[in-house]
């Protein structure tokens, strides 16, 4: 990697377990060596969108036991990407609570939120509107938020989503 992690805006990837975060990160960073932060053990990699634009992506997991360590990432975080499995409506209430909890953190105040409605390749996956309703996104009035459908498995919708995140970071 030609650029150090610290120079690119830091984007934190969150979501419940099985939402597809690792699949997404490895799909986006294909051909790159994925690093694991030795101190904390999370996956990190730099996504190059064009010659001038890169983002450092941190996959900080979703498992309950990891949640206490989320706080280490929030200080420098410039955008939050929250990944949900849109084929699992039953887990939306749990996802809504996890999102609400993390966005309640003072350090994330005002930063843009991108919700990725992942697994759109599966039949009967929730629409963008359904995901935004179930996560109660309308209640977040103090930040820009957006929902994009994607398939980490098939590599659909990812590039657009991260280009959009990068634009929002530049604006904010
Ligand atoms: P996590 O890192 O958020 O815990 P993973 O999630 O990336 O490990 O993905 C969990 C499972 O969902 C994996 O299946 C993975 O292949 C699958 N998955 C991830 N993204 C997609 C997608 O866009 N479409 C479909 N159909 N499946 C996806 P396994 O079977 O390995 O558990």
What do these coordinates show?
With 172 residues, the chain is of the alpha/beta class. It has a single domain (10-171), classed as Rossmann fold (3-Layer(aba) Sandwich), CATH 3.40.50.300. Helices cover 26% and strands 25% of the residues. It is built from five helices and seven strands, in the order E-H-E-E-E-H-E-H-E-H-E-H. The chain has helices at 21-28, 71-74, 92-103, 128-134, 158-171, and strands at residues 10-15, 35-36, 43-50, 53-59, 77-85, 113-118, 145-149. A seven-stranded mixed β-sheet has the order 2-3-4-1-5-6-7, sandwiched between helices. Strand 5, helix 3 and strand 6 form a beta-alpha-beta unit. The longest helix has 14 residues, at 158-171. It is globular and about 40 Å long. Residues 1-5 have low confidence and may be disordered. Bound molecules: guanosine-3'-monophosphate-5'-diphosphate. Guanosine-3'-monophosphate-5'-diphosphate (G3D) binds next to helix 1.
Instruction: Give the name of the CATH architecture.
Output: 3-Layer(aba) Sandwich
How many strands appear in the DSSP assignment?
7
Order of helices and strands: EHEEEHEHEHEH
Annotation field: number of helices: 5
- Poorly predicted segments: 1-5
As a percent range, the share of helical residues equals 25-40%
Named CATH topology: Rossmann fold
Mean pLDDT: 87
Q: What is the distance, rounded to the nearest whole angstrom, between the alpha carbons of the first and last residues?
A: 27 Å
Beta-strand content: 25-35%
* Molecules bound to protein: guanosine-3'-monophosphate-5'-diphosphate
- What would CATH call the class? Alpha Beta
Which outline best applies?
globular
Classification by helices and strands: alpha/beta
Radius of gyration: 15 Å
Total domain count: 1
The largest sheet is: 7 strands, mixed
Query: Strand order across the biggest sheet?
Result: 2-3-4-1-5-6-7
CATH superfamily placement: P-loop containing nucleotide triphosphate hydrolases
């Amino acid at each position: 990697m030609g650029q150090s992690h610290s120079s690119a805006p830091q984007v934190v990837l969150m979501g419940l377990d099985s939402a597809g975060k690792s699949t997404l990160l490895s799909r986006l960073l294909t051909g790159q060596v994925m690093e694991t932060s030795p101190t904390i053990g999370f996956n990190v990699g730099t996504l190059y969108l064009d010659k001038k634009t890169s983002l450092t992506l941190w996959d900080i997991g979703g498992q309950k036991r990891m949640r206490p360590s989320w706080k280490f990432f929030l200080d420098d975080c410039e955008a939050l990407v929250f990944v949900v499995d849109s084929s699992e409506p039953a887990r939306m209430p749990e996802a809504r609570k996890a999102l609400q909890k993390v966005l309640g953190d003072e350090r994330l105040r005002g930063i843009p939120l991108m919700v990725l409605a992942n697994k759109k390749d599966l039949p009967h996956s929730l629409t963008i509107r359904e995901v935004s309703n179930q996560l109660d996104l309308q209640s977040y009035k103090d930040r820009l938020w957006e929902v994009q459908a994607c398939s980490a498995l098939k590599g659909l919708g990812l590039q657009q989503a991260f280009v959009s995140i990068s634009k929002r970071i530049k604006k904010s």
